[in-house]
UniProtKB/TrEMBL annotation:
Keyword list, A-Z: Bromodomain, Chromatin regulator, Nucleus, Repeat, Transcription, Transcription regulation
Bias kind Polar residues: ranges: 169-178
Name of the molecule in the record: Chromatin structure-remodeling complex subunit RSC1/2
A molecular function (GO) term: chromatin binding
Span of domain BAH: 461-584
Annotated source species: Tremella mesenterica (Jelly fungus)
Ranges of biased composition (kind: Acidic residues): 635-645
Lineage: Eukaryota, Fungi, Dikarya, Basidiomycota, Agaricomycotina
PANTHER family the record matches: CHROMATIN STRUCTURE-REMODELING COMPLEX SUBUNIT RSC1-RELATED, SWI/SNF-RELATED
């Protein structure tokens, strides 16, 4: 049987890269090895990386862990996976207290390989060769007095031994990993390892920090659920995970955004040092880059918030290697490695430094997602970083450390629940037109002093009409503002930088509601608050789905990528009336430009999900600017127009009078349908179909077009549920005309070929009309062009306009005088044919 090999088994021809510093790191207060012992361990590990067998490097197959998606059985057979790169990172960060701890983890790499692969296979033989090599190196250093004992396991109760394998059994069966019995008091802590680590780090040099084995907490409802509800939640999560595993991955920020090189007159892709060429020249150009990077890192390292907390400690808690799915990158990265690269001036451009910091913040947000305090610290540091690296950066005091910001560096003074409209009056306002305090949002999109653009750019990302974003919340950084972009613009006054106009969404804790109100997990409310933000306020892209879309699937790219925060919206919220209204007309909630497009098209789940509901956040210990109370007006459904109330009553009356239409006979497709649209009310499991959807049987008025396919299948809602949508491949879509969001434009039919529609030629006129035109051109006609006084010419065959009748019969008008055409002075001595040709030539020349 051939040995099992991971995707990393392809041998690289170049020398393997060991992600460990060559110089001795400073010993930490919490522990670490002395310089002589550390150098001996480094040399032992380096010999492993450069070990050769017949010109072939042995280390690459052991440098990284196997792909989890390809080798799931590896992680069930090996309870403690380990790889060379992880050992190297731990050694470089002084993660081992003694040489024995280092050796045990290094030895574990080869013990795992020998246990998983068949004996005498290539990988097994390579692991055996390297195992013998490190034992020999240990004994050599022990003889030199660097290590205290010739046996690296002299502290352990027993030495590692090869696990006994029954003859004929598979080598991949789950069993205890053969390895040393490590003393818990001296065991080193292993970090979680990235699922798809990159073989080449993005940074010039990586110096990791001490890592943590605590994984980021999963999002879960914060109240007790019944076993049936828990089973439903887990089943829905599996449905979601199955779909997201097949969706395209987010590629992250781009170093260069193609297209318009300077949208709104601002060049670049939004990176540090781009967007303000004149300012860049004034501060020294490329020669000033190392010092500018150091000032930014120093400000982040020393900044303390209002409570005196050093926020960079939160970044230092993020492990160098983590197992976070759907990150846009795989390379190990930490604030410590960025700090080391900065002090050594290893960043050649501002963009390279900026890209590492953007990735670090992405990783930190995902790691602390769900942990309120730490997540808020990361967002506050990110907003500070955005201010320090803006096209026109914030001014720093002589100390180089910004003072604590009461608004967490947000550009606005208040967030949802505290902000007020500019047209509202404050209680102590001196005049009716004076906005007081936190009155700065508007109920419509501003148009003054701005130049609208097609997109805004920031940190290698584009932000366009309709995109949902997180922006900084000045009241609580752990709960960023959710908003949808309605406009992107550049101010015509002041510094020309990218800005966005967004419509805010409120969280439940930012609203006023009754104590018995329940909410969907991650539910938010559409509001009428519009606010302008500089792009530096943007934290990240997110996704918002309306309820009817949320339960059916996930938005297609680029409106959603796996790993992005996603919210569900069911209702509007009016903070002036302190009431929420269920949304019926979803198109009214998005920008006008997107209402006739396929915005928020979803890729369907295997079945619809049923989002769980949770009690009020105030009953779960969550605080916010909202509170428990009764709305000032009754809660109801959204009014689509002024006459909807009357229409509802009329509809109810007419519904009672209409008999229930007969249901058409439809092939068994696992869904009960009726003639006419209806709402899904319940999901009942049945056999053999896993999920059966029962549709409402309320009678509906009969449709005039009863023979249409839509009515035959049970109405548009049933069709929308059953229809299978297929997306054009990207390479095919690029061949067709597309709209501003990149969607292919569809037409009801093909274009018509030339000549398919007959074009009428030049009309033929009667002889009297031609004569009239000729006389008018010569100035000889004295009438007004009406029928009165008009002459009808007769007498010659071919010149008559039809039979001439007397009286008021057809063909003769009142007051029409008959005259022989040949008696007119200009037609004398001419044949009728010549007269007709002469009249036509005159008309044609007009």
């Amino acid at each position: 049987m051939a040995p099992k090999r991971s995707a990393a088994s392809r041998q690289r021809q170049s020398t393997p890269l060991m992600p460990c510093p060559t110089s001795y790191p400073v010993k930490k207060e919490s522990g670490g090895m002395e310089e002589a012992q550390w150098i001996a361990c480094w040399e032992m590990l380096n010999k492993v990386y450069i070990a050769l067998d017949a010109g072939r490097y042995l280390a690459p197959i052991f440098a990284q862990l196997p792909d989890k998606t390809l080798y799931e059985d590896y992680y069930s057979a090996i309870p403690e996976p380990e790889c060379l790169d992880n050992v190297s990172l731990q050694l470089g960060s002084q993660g081992y207290s003694t040489p024995e701890d280092f050796f045990k983890q290094l030895h574990l790499v080869f013990l795992n390989a020998k246990h998983y692969n068949e004996e005498d296979s290539r990988i097994w033989l390579d692991a055996k060769m390297l195992e013998d090599q490190i034992h020999e190196n240990w004994r050599l250093k022990a003889s030199e007095g660097i290590f205290s004992h010739s046996d690296p396991y002299h502290f352990s109760p027993r030495k590692p031994r090869k696990a006994k394998r029954e003859r004929g059994t598979s080598s991949t069966r789950a069993s205890t990993t053969p390895g040393p019995i490590v003393d818990p008091a001296s065991a080193s802590v292993l970090p979680l390892v990235a699922e798809h680590p990159s073989p080449i780090p993005t940074t010039p040099f990586v110096e990791p920090i001490a890592t943590s084995t605590v994984p980021p907490p999963r999002s879960s409802v914060a109240w007790s659920l019944t076993p049936a509800m828990l089973a439903q939640v887990e089943a829905d999560r599996r449905i979601i995970a199955d779909l997201e595993s097949r969706l395209p991955r987010w590629e992250g920020p781009k170093e260069v955004i193609h297209g318009d090189t300077a949208p709104g007159g601002i060049p670049g892709s939004g990176w540090f040092g781009e967007g303000a060429p004149q300012y860049e020249q004034s501060v020294g150009g490329p020669g000033s880059w190392p010092d500018r990077i150091k000032r930014v890192v120093h400000a982040l390292s020393e900044y303390r918030d209002i409570s005196g907390r050093l926020l960079v400690d939160t970044l230092n808690q993020v492990p160098t290697l983590v197992d976070i799915p759907y990150l846009s990158f795989n390379a190990p990265i930490s604030f410590s490695s960025i700090h080391t690269n900065t002090q050594s001036s290893r960043y050649r451009t501002l963009r390279a430094f900026d890209l590492d910091m953007v990735r670090l913040f992405e990783k930190s947000r995902r790691w602390f997602q769900g942990r309120t305090q730490e997540y808020g610290h990361v967002l506050e540091l990110q907003r500070l970083y955005n201010s320090l690296t803006a096209p026109f950066p914030m001014n720093l005091p002589p100390s180089g450390v910004p003072p604590p910001s009461p608004t967490h560096f947000a550009s606005i003074p208040a967030g949802p629940g505290n902000a007020r409209f500019t047209h509202e009056l404050a209680p102590d306002a001196k005049s009716s037109s004076e906005p007081v305090g936190r009155h700065f949002t508007t109920f419509r999109i501003g148009t003054k002093d701005r130049e609208f653009t097609q997109e805004a750019r920031h940190k290698g990302l584009t932000y366009k009409l309709g995109d949902y974003v997180h922006v900084m919340n000045p009241d609580d950084p752990s709960r960023p503002i959710v908003g949808q972009i309605f406009k992107t613009f550049v101010p015509t006054k002041g510094n020309r930088t990218h800005h966005i106009t967004i419509c805010w969404y409120f969280r439940p804790e930012q609203t006023v509601h009754t104590a018995d109100r329940t909410f969907h997990e991650n539910e938010i409310f559409k509001t009428g608050h519009f606010c302008d933000h500089p792009v530096e306020d943007i934290i990240e892209r997110v996704s918002v789905s309306f309820y009817v879309k949320y339960i059916r699937g996930r938005p297609q790219a680029p409106e959603y990528y796996p790993g992005w925060p996603i919210y569900i919206c069911v209702a509007r919220y009016n903070d002036q009336k302190q009431m929420s209204v269920r949304i019926k007309n979803w198109a009214s909630c998005i920008p006008d430009e997107l209402r006739q497009t396929d915005f928020m098209t979803v890729i369907p789940f295997a079945r619809q999900i049923d989002p769980i509901k949770v009690p009020s956040p105030f009953l779960r210990g969550i605080k916010g600017p909202g509170f428990l109370g009764d709305p000032q007006e009754s809660v109801g459904d959204e009014d689509d127009d002024e006459d909807e109330g009357e229409n509802r009553r009329a509809a109810r009356v007419s519904t009672r009078e209409v008999q229930k239409p007969e249901q058409p006979v439809i092939p068994n497709i696992g869904i009960n349908v009726q003639a006419g649209p209806s709402r899904p009310t319940q999901y009942i499991p049945s056999q053999p179909v896993p999920t059966r959807q029962v549709w409402s049987t309320a009678p509906t008025p009969p449709s005039n077009s009863t023979k249409s396919f839509v009515n035959l299948m049970g109405g548009p809602q049933v069709i929308d549920h059953l229809a299978v949508r297929e997306l054009l491949p990207q390479e095919t879509a690029q061949l067709f005309e597309r709209d501003s969001r990149g969607q292919v434009l569809w037409f009801s039919g093909p274009p018509l070929p030339l000549g398919a529609i007959p074009v009428p030629g030049q009309p033929s006129h009667s002889i009297e009309y031609l004569e009239y035109l000729a006389k008018r051109k010569r100035g000889e006609s004295g009438d007004d062009g009406g029928s009165k006084g008009r002459k009808r010419y007769t007498g010659d065959v071919g010149l008559s306009n039809g039979p001439v009748n007397s009286g008021n019969e057809a063909g003769v008008g009142v007051g029409v005088e008959e005259e022989d055409l040949t008696k007119i002075w200009w037609a004398q001595d001419q044949t009728p044919g010549k007269i007709l040709d002469a009249l036509r030539s005159v008309v044609d020349s007009i």
